[in-house]
Amino acid sequence: MSGYNTPPPPQPQGGYYPPPPEKAQYGQQQQYPPPPQSPPAAGGAAYYPPPPQQQQYPPPLQQPPTPAGPPPPLAQQAFDPSRQSVPPPPQAAQGASPTMVTDTLGSFNGGSYRIDHRDTNTLLTLQLAHGCPIVAKPGAMVAMTPSVTLKGQVKFSFKKLIAGGEMAQSTYTGPGELLLAPPALGDIVPIRLDGAQTWNAGRDAFLACTQGVQKDYKSQSLGKAMFSGEGLFVYKISGQGVLFVTSLGAIIQKNMAPGEQYIVDNEHLVAWNSKYTIERVASGGVLSGIASAEGLVCRFTGPGTVFIQTRNPKAFGAWMSTHMTAAA
């Protein structure tokens, strides 16, 4: 091509051209320096360090031998009335601050219980052995297996008639499963009785009890009947077994040391086993007490335990009435 003049490549000084790089021949392996040799051991043989040992782990725990066969279901076991109930669990430390009750699983003579959906939609599930009875509040039954039998009983008394107490009770007998629930949006708490203590419970607090628990309707003093919020009569509960009480809202537990005092609003009581007095805490006269809505309270003195509900039934009823009227 005569139309283009290509300049010659630059000439190195002195006319020296470096030789082209040699191409590696195919199949020729690259040489690497040998690894450093360890000092020869005795006898001239090369010495190599042993490989690192694997970490030693403790041997696995030995599993207890499994029994030859599973125990028979509770519904097939026979109920023994002569056998005493299981001992109560260890109590919380005396003088402790109020705590939520967490005893949701347990057993008793002839059965076991489980409490689900705590605080508001609480449900009590009972597993009963053959012949094991449970006394419950009328209308508390949610469901049960066909093998459970129900028997109603009416105990008439003038004091219950005057105080508006329930004169009927329902007795469920195993074997089978029984589901109980309170009428209000409340909680359920088991109280274990060892035969040496007496509990007081409000007329709306009783839900159910096992065999061996004795329930009676006792009168209070006139002052406590007028101002405690529980009326003239309360349940006096003793014996040995498990008592199930219910509430409006959640239940908290207060354990009091000897001589310790604790003040509870009279509309928040569920159950207690200590002495108490009624007094006014609002100062400034009657009008001040009415305005504060905290005029009368219960002063408890230890030792003992008080179960308290987080909602006031009267205040809750007034709140519902006000909102229903406004909605209408």
From TrEMBL:
SUPFAM superfamilies: TRAP-like. Residues 1-22, 48-74 have a biased composition (Pro residues). The keyword Methyltransferase does not apply. Residues 75-85 have a biased composition (Low complexity). InterPro entries: AIM24, AIM24_sf, Trp_RNA-bd_attenuator-like_dom. Pfam families: AIM24. Residues 1-105 are annotated as: Disordered. NCBIfam families: TIGR00266 family protein. This is Altered inheritance of mitochondria protein 24, mitochondrial.
